[in-house]
Amino acid sequence: MQFGVTREDIRLALEREDIESCPLWKPMHLRPIFAGCEAVGGAVAEAFFRDGRCLPSGTALAATDLARVAEVIRRAGRGQSVAQIHPET
After folding, report:
1. pTM of the model
2. Which residues on neighbouring strands pair with residue 54, listed in sequence order?
3. E-strand spans in 1-89?
4. From 66's CA, which of 10, 35, 47, 55 has a CA 20 to 30 Å away?
């Protein structure tokens, strides 16, 4: 946890600001349909799945929206909420 917060902390901080996020997709080798199949490697994919989040993205995402998402994540890392910085928000 180098950033200082868990993926659940990030999810909750984003949720409080009405920003949707979701877990990363489960790696193929961890899916039940592939149980018993040979898998080579996978430790990196497992770490991403365990620790990562999918954040808002896409061609329609405005720069202001991106900045807002980044700011919520930065503040979560510092243990602050947007309301603590901008009480009127």
Report:
1. 0.75
2. 22
3. 22-23, 53-54
4. 47
